[in-house]
Structures are given as C-alpha cells and as structure tokens.
C-alpha cells in the first residue's frame, strides 16, 4: 500500500545536463523506515523532493502505492513532508498550522477538530495549540511540523533533515520520538540526513549516496560491517575507519600478507582466498579497519602474533565510556584505537597495536570497491 | 527572609535600571532628536490651529501659533462656498475617498500579485520583467503624462472612476518592495503548503499576504498618499465636474485667491481636511508595520 518504487529515476539540471541524481533504483517497502544519507550536495534531498513532487523528474518512474506519480501534483500523492526549518506558517497558530492541510481538503469542521486534537495528544503539544510558531522552542516547532504531517494520515512520510536545526541533546530526544512514532503509526518513512549516527540508529535500511549516485543500500549493520566501497566505509561510523595503503604479497601458496615498508600483517586464509580469486595478489590495496578492531591489549598480541604494528601514542580523546587513542604507525599516519579508559600508555610512549585481521576490509585503490564484499546481497 | 527578598529586590532593581542609563552620546542624540521632532511637528500644529482660528485671529499681527478662541467658523465657510453651486463639496470628498480607498486596494493587490511570481516562480524571462518594472522608476511623471492621456482617452474611460484608478495602479516601488519581502520567505513554506493541498491562489492569499503585511502596510501608505493628494487625474482626465476630487477642488479654491484675503479661513480648514486622512492612515498602518516587523521571525 504505502510502498514506493523508484525506477531509473534521474535528475538533470540545465542544458549542460549536470546530473544531480543518476539512475536511482529502489523499492521501499510498506512500513519501512528508509534513511538516505550522504554528504551535502549528494542528491539525497533532490531525490526526496522528486518523491514529494516538488521537483520534476528528468527521466524514470516513481510509484507511490500502485500509482505512477510522475505527473501527479504533490497534493494528490498522499504524502506528508517535514522540513529542516520546520516551515510552519508564521501567521497561524499551532492549531491552524496542523488543521491547514485538512481545511484544504475541505473536511467537515468536527472531523478536523478531532484529528487535530488526536495528533496534538500523540505529540504532547495540546498545551500550546493557541500559540504562534514564534512563541515555541525549536523542539516544539518540530513537533508541530510532525503533527502537521501525521494529522493527514498519509501513505508516506518524507523528512528532510528534520533534526538538523535542533541542539545536540534535543536531537537525540527527538530521534527516539520519531522512531517511536514510526513504530506506533507504521507509515512508510523516507528520511534524509547527513548525519551518519541518525542514519544508523533510525533506519531499517540505509541508502548511502555520493555525487548523485547510490553507493549502497542495506541494513545499518551490513552498511557498517560490510561496506560496498571505500566511500561508504569512510562515511559511516565514528571515529572514521582507519585506512592504510599497502601491497598484497603471496608469502606461500594461498596465504597473503599485507605489506608496507614498515610492517607486514598476515591475512586469514578465507580472506586470502577471496583476494587471490580476484587476482589481487601482488597489487596495491587499501586496508580498512575500524577502531574497535584495533587493540592495545597484550592478551590480543598472543592470539594474533602476525598482525602487530609498533607505534607511538600521539594523542587521545576521552569520550566517557571509551577513549580514542591515536597511534602514529608511519610517517604522519595515525591509527585510531578505541580502547578502555584505563589503558596504560601515556602520550609519546611506544605502543603496539594489534589488528583483528578477520575484521579487516580491503579496497581496490582505483575503484574504491570493497574486494571482500559478497555481491549476492547487493540491493534490497 | 525579609533581607533576602530585599537583596533580591535591589539586585532586580539594579538589573532593571541598567538599560535606562544613557551614555553621553545617547543623551546628545536624544536631545537632538527631540528638537528635530519639535521642528517637524510645527507645521502640523500650525495646520490644526489655523483651521480653528476665527477670521480676526488669522490676520493678527504678529501672527500667533496657538489659537485663542477656537471656532468651527472656517469649516462652515468652506461648506458654504459650494452651497449655491450645482456640485456640493461632499461630492468631491466622496470621489476622493472612493478613489483613494480603491487605489490602495488595487495597488497592494496588483503589486503583490506581480511580485509573487517574479520572486517565487522563476519563469523564463522573470529577470527581464522585473528589470523593466524597475526601469520605469527612472521616468519622471511629467514625461508619461501625454502617453498616459492617450491611453486613458483611447480606452474611453475619461470621466469615469477608471480614469482615476488605472493610471495609479502600476506602482513600481510597490512591486519592488513586495518582491524584496517575498524573497525572504523560505521556499519550504510554500512547498509545505503545496503538499498540504493548497492551490496557488490559496497559498498567495493565506500565507504570502499575511506574512508580508509589513510590505502591504508600507505600500498602502504610499498608495494612499499618492492617491489622496493627486490632482493630476482630475485635471487631465475629468471634464465632468462631478467626477473631480477634493484636492482638485481645493487647488481651484486657493489658486484663484492670489493675495486675496477672502476665503483664507476656508483654505485653512480645507488644508486640515486634506491632511487628516494621511495622518490617520499613517498611524493605523505604522503600528501594523511595527507589530508585524516584530514577528517576522519565520524560522
């Protein structure tokens, strides 16, 4: 019912055919919470606006429910949208803001009243129905904007960075509230953000975009642990993934080693096999490893004797539960280690970092493609 | 308990007192502004007093500013001038009021409807349209008097209210002001309304216009003052005496006088009648300008 299908959707601007969105294919299931994430200018907002009907489609097809909506105006698409700057009508009070969409649809007065009150109760904004938007705080305004969306009972919610204007604490609070709201209403939601934390925490599935091209569509877990390319790996996750350039050397039959001038790291057999199958033995690659798979613990050294790098503890960031330690492992090459806060070393002391090579990722230097990505589960 | 509240009170007092303390520069500029406003107010005071002065007081020497024995004699005289003519003064006043109000409504409406698409619907050539509207600002009114006459005459609207209204409707300053204001509206606001199901005209009427009230108020003031004091349309396009406006009537009244002592009182009364609506309109819309400016916080 509330599914959305995008079929080869493209958006080009101007005569020089500059593509803002290229060949976008996606099926969003009914009731799904889909997050589109990417750096600014990657085309995620444009895609959302095309679904909303605020932007024309250069080519391709968009279906909402069972209807082709390419030429349907926004108001007939049965969607509701929440904007980054709330876009509340400043001349109307909260009640009128929420009721506006229903009034435009010429619903009888008592129905409008009931619907507005119900939406206000859901979002706990009953107490300021009489106020004007300027008398509300950012969080309250965003609630009103959400109220304006849910009151119409649409098939699809579209949210364009709705939390970006809120302060950090409120953002986290509203995030959980939007998740709750989605669970409660079960309405298909497309959510655009540039914040990878929001993407990871909120989405059933995530679409990572860059320069108008979809990089990967998958669950948050798989996006994080098995990114399709170097961009996805680097964009998702905080602190960012560690990337080291080196060469793959075949030390014996079927066994590879990741080799730089300073150190060599043994690669487990299963990974070696895949890399050899891809004819990468002897080639330069980029090794990617997340900070939680890099250890300072001496116990790890015994179990992984062939994946150690000597380094110097350069600086550390105290994060509360964790400590991010930056170890210099080569000329101006820092490796981030997520460690316990009570780890022993001090700044400028020597440390030995141990890499959990089973979790290591290898990327092609030219294409950025993840060489270990299993292609059988590409797009959903 | 008492002492703490006293301390709190004194602290409060000190905090409150701070903004009212003026720096020397502020004091000087305050004095200057007060003097300037007195200077600017003088003509208004003079108009009010003159209108109420009986004849003998009007010609007192040395002249006085304040009226000693206020009377309505001048107004009665003004009324009496038209007593024996075919057209009573009320007709002129009616014409003026009707034309001024209609002009205000038309000018604000047309300016807004012109500015909205230029600002928010970037149709091909919108820059050229806006540019050509601005270019018309360069022409002095005198240069367009003859073409304007030809247009009005060929349209066949001489001696009708359209003859008064049509030449006044296009106000480039109004379009400019309105466009600048609408430019500030975030596009998301209009997008939100579109998704809510509002038609283009509903968006314009229910969202754009209410938010742009400061601009509407400013344009209303400009349009009213232009229309109320305008004698040009009466002189050029109206041959029928019943279609002429009050300022035209007054100009005939005073221009025939030269240095004549007669009717000076009536002229003073007429000046007050001419001036009062301007003041009232300004006071009404000015407060509107300030209140709407205060909550222009759209975000």
Defining key terms:
heterodimer; A: 380 residues; OB fold (Dihydrolipoamide Acetyltransferase, E2P); six-stranded mixed β-sheet; five-stranded antiparallel β-sheet; B: 299 residues; mainly alpha; MetI-like fold; 15 helices; disordered C terminus
Could you please describe the fold and organization of this structure?
The complex is a heterodimer of chains A (380) and B (299). Chain A has 380 residues and is α+β, with helices and mostly antiparallel strands. Chain A has 10 helices and 20 strands. Chain A has helices spanning 44-52, 94-104, 109-123, 138-150, 168-185, 196-202, 220-225, 230-235, 269-277, 298-303, and strands at residues 4-13, 18-28, 33-37, 59-64, 67-68, 79-82, 156-160, 188-193, 205-210, 213-218, 242-252, 255-259, 264-266, 284-289, 294-295, 308-318, 323-330, 333-339, 350-355, 361-364. In chain A, helix 5 (168-185) links the parallel strand 7 and strand 8. Chain B has 2 domains: 2-71, no CATH class; 81-294, MetI-like fold (Orthogonal Bundle). Chain B has helices at residues 2-17, 24-52, 55-58, 73-81, 89-120, 126-135, 145-155, 161-169, 172-183, 187-195, 200-211, 213-228, 232-237, 246-255, 264-294. Chain B is globular and about 70 Å long. Classes of the chains: A alpha+beta (380), B mainly alpha (299).
SSE topology sketch:
The complex is a heterodimer of chains A (380) and B (299).
Chain A: E1 4-13, E2 18-28, E3 33-37, H1 44-52, E4 59-64, E5 67-68, E6 79-82, H2 94-104, H3 109-123, H4 138-150, E7 156-160, H5 168-185, E8 188-193, H6 196-202, E9 205-210, E10 213-218, H7 220-225, H8 230-235, E11 242-252, E12 255-259, E13 264-266, H9 269-277, E14 284-289, E15 294-295, H10 298-303, E16 308-318, E17 323-330, E18 333-339, E19 350-355, E20 361-364
Parallel strand pairs in A: 3-8, 3-9, 6-7, 7-8
Antiparallel strand pairs in A: 1-2, 1-4, 4-5, 9-10, 11-12, 11-14, 12-13, 14-20, 15-19, 16-17, 16-19, 17-18
Chain B: H1 2-17, H2 24-52, H3 55-58, H4 73-81, H5 89-120, H6 126-135, H7 145-155, H8 161-169, H9 172-183, H10 187-195, H11 200-211, H12 213-228, H13 232-237, H14 246-255, H15 264-294
């Amino acid at each position: 019912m509330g599914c959305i299908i995008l079929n080869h959707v493209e958006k080009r601007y101007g005569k020089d055919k500059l593509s803002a969105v290229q060949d976008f294919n996606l099926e969003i299931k009914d009731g799904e919470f889909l997050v589109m994430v990417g750096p600014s200018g990657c085309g995620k907002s444009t895609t959302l606006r095309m679904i909303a009907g605020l932007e024309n489609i250069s080519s391709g097809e968009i279906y909402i429910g069972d209807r082709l909506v390419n030429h349907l105006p926004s108001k007939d698409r049965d969607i509701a949208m929440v904007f980054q700057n709330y876009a509340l009508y400043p001349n109307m009070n909260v009640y009128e803001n929420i009721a506006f969409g229903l009034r435009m649809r010429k619903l009888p007065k008592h129905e409008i009243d009931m619907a507005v009150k119900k939406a206000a109760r859901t979002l706990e904004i009953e107490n300021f129905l009489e106020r004007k938007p300027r008398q509300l705080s950012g969080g309250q305004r965003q609630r009103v904007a959400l109220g304006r969306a849910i009151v119409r009972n649409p098939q699809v919610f579209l949210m364009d960075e709705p939390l970006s204007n809120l302060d950090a604490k409120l953002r986290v609070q509203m995030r959980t509230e939007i998740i709750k709201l989605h669970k409660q209403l079960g309405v298909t939601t497309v959510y655009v953000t540039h914040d990878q934390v929001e993407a990871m925490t909120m989405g059933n599935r995530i679409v990572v975009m860059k320069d108008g091209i979809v990089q990967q569509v998958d669950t948050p877990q798989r996006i994080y642990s098995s990114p399709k390319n170097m961009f996805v790996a680097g964009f998702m996750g905080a602190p960012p993934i560690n990337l080291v350039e080196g060469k793959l050397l075949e030390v014996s039959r079927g066994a590879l080693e990741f080799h730089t001038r300073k150190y060599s790291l043994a690669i487990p057999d299963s990974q070696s096999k895949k890399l050899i199958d891809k004819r990468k033995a002897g080639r330069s690659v980029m090794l990617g490893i997340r900070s939680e798979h890099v250890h300072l613990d001496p116990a790890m050294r015994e179990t992984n004797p062939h994946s150690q790098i000597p380094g110097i503890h350069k600086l550390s960031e105290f994060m509360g539960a964790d400590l991010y330690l930056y170890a210099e492992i080569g000329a101006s090459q820092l490796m981030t280690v997520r460690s316990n806060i009570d780890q022993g070393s001090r700044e400028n002391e020597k440390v030995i970092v141990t890499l959990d090579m089973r979790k290591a990722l290898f990327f092609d230097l030219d294409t950025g493609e993840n060489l270990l990505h299993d292609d059988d589960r590409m797009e959903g | 308990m008492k002492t703490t509240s006293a301390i709190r009170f004194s602290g409060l007092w000190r905090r409150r007192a701070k903004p009212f303390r003026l720096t020397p520069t502020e004091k000087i500029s305050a004095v200057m502004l007060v003097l300037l406003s007195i200077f600017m107010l003088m003509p208004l005071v003079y108009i009010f007093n003159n209108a109420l002065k009986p004849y003998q007081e009007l010609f007192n020497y040395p002249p006085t500013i304040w009226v000693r024995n206020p009377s309505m004699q001048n107004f009665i005289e003004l009324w009496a001038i038209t007593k024996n003519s075919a057209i009573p003064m009320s007709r002129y006043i009616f014409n003026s009021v009707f034309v001024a109000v209609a002009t205000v409504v038309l000018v604000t409406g047309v300016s807004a409807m012109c500015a909205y698409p230029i600002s928010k619907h970037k149709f091909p050539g919108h820059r050229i349209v806006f540019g050509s509207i601005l270019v018309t600002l360069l022409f002095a009114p005198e240069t367009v008097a003859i073409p304007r006459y030809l247009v009005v005459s060929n349209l066949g609207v001489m001696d009708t209210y359209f003859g008064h209204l049509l030449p006044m409707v296009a106000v480039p300053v109004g379009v400019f002001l309105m466009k600048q204001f609408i430019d500030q509206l975030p596009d998301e606001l209009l997008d939100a309304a579109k998704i809510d199901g509002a038609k283009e005209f509903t968006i314009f009427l229910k969202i754009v216009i209410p938010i742009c009230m400061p601009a509407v108020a400013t344009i209303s003031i400009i349009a009213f003052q232009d229309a109320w004091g305008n004698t040009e349309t009466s002189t050029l396009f109206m041959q029928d005496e019943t279609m002429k406006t009050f300022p035209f009537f007054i100009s005939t009244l005073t221009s025939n006088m030269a240095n004549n002592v007669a009717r000076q009182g009536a002229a003073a009364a007429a000046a007050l009648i001419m001036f009062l609506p301007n003041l009232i309109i300004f006071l009404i819309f000015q407060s509107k300008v300030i209140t709407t400016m205060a909550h222009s916080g759209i975000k």
